[in-house]
Design a protein that fits this description.
Largest sheet: 2 strands, antiparallel
Helix content: over 70%
Shape: flat
Strand order of the largest sheet: 1-2
Number of helices: 8
Radius of gyration: 18 Å
Number of strands: 2
Structural class: mainly alpha
Strand content: under 5%
Order of helices and strands: HEEHHHHHHH
Amino acid sequence: AATAAALAMAGPAQSAFSGTFAVDTATGAARVIATLTTLLVLGVASGEIAGSPRESDTYALLLLATTGVMVLAGATDLLVLIVGFLLASIPLYGIVGLTGGRAGAEAAMKTYLMGALSGILLMAGVTVLYALAGGTDYALLRDALPVAPAAAVGAGVLGVLAGLLFKAGGVPFHFWVPDAAQGTG
């Protein structure tokens, strides 16, 4: 995946999936970073993962989450952004609770609840922006939102940012990060 992304970066900027996914230098860089970071995580955790009863589950969840991150990076449409968000989030809940035990279950539940709340806010923000612009494509939003009511645009953008801040572990959706780290340890 990193090699394919690097090769795509050398070519001209393109779009895929009816213009909802960008294939350009920035997306390629994000894909390379996500792939190499996943390889780094697998390298660091290989001793713990190898031979564990959940080894194949761990690999599958990490690959799905990495795919979600790549979709998030290349999205040029809010609906694809939602798909990337969900594809990156849902495996996260499994990864957090994978180690088992009370601490892992509690951490997975907290992560899930914060993820569900931020996902709802993300989708509500997308809904508001769609209602204002009449579409979800970033180019359409760029053209239509400047003439829309500022308060409604602010509410929609705030909803979208809330969901993305969860993925980044940013304030105010950062509370899951220490619990997840402690629960998986």
